[in-house]
Amino acid sequence: MSSAATAAPGRTRPGSTTSERSVIRAQRSRDTRIGWLFVTPFVVVFAMFLLWPLLHGFYLSFTGESITGAGGAFLGLDNYAEALRDPIMWRSMLNTLWFTVLSTVPLVLVALVMALLVFQGLPGQWLWRLSFFMSFLLASTVAAQFWIWMYNPQLGLVNYLLSGLGIEGQAWLQDTKWAMLAVVVETLWWTVGFNFLLYLTALQNIPEQQYEASALDGAGRWRQLWSITIPQLGPTTVLIVILQILASLKVFDQIYIMTQGGPGGVTRPVVQYIFESGFTGYRFGYASAIAYIFFAVIIIVSLAQVGFTSRRNAR
Known about the structure:
Layout: H1 3-6, H2 18-60, H3 78-84, H4 87-119, H5 125-134, H6 140-150, H7 157-164, H8 179-204, H9 208-216, H10 221-232, H11 234-249, H12 253-258, H13 270-280, H14 284-314
Helix pairs in contact: 2-14, 3-14, 4-8, 4-11, 4-13, 11-14, 13-14
């Protein structure tokens, strides 16, 4: 076997001849070309569908661009200044944050309880797993329409069940006091299956020896839950909270289908206001400015989560 063949790829041996160095350089060049060949499809898709829209949208936020193509003059920071003075934008931002707070806590706690019930060995395991996760497989339009029927003031199942308990029903989606809570309940029913699956996977990865050792020490189920299960689920809980907050901040589908942002704008999220500004108000530039302000809010929230998680892990 030649000395060039035994040399480490991409490296030249001390004392190697000129021909050996040429072979190594040729091999390195060939490997580089093959590497770019594999990477190129991803780079093209990334540039077309993420990088270019991101940069173009940022440029549009400094212009008066319209959906009609007119009014594309450069406006500088005027769109951002107008957005920061816009009370509707701030109200929609607060609606989004309020929805995030209301939805994140139950979506974590309910998913944890569901996973614990299944993990403890409820009868009919396959049925519970299927029923807990199946709603997550539905399209947002199907889930929203299902709950529109459920919330119907005259014929809906929710008011029918409440009347059986002697409680007066409500026009859930038309009442400013209940509309946001009604959407949160629909979101909980629709998306909790994903968090349930993450928790169940984490529970199944906890070593059984820990439970056996604690049982020998006299620990009951509650002591095992608080001393073994909950601490072991810490990293999964952090992951679920981060994913849930980011998902809730981007809420749009179910609210737009169920309430169209009403009544009185109490459920309008910021993503819907961006959509309305761009495609109803025909102001692409202004909508882009709001989008990048919202993007900055998401970055701040994400950095705060990373900082909190880092401090927690450092303890």
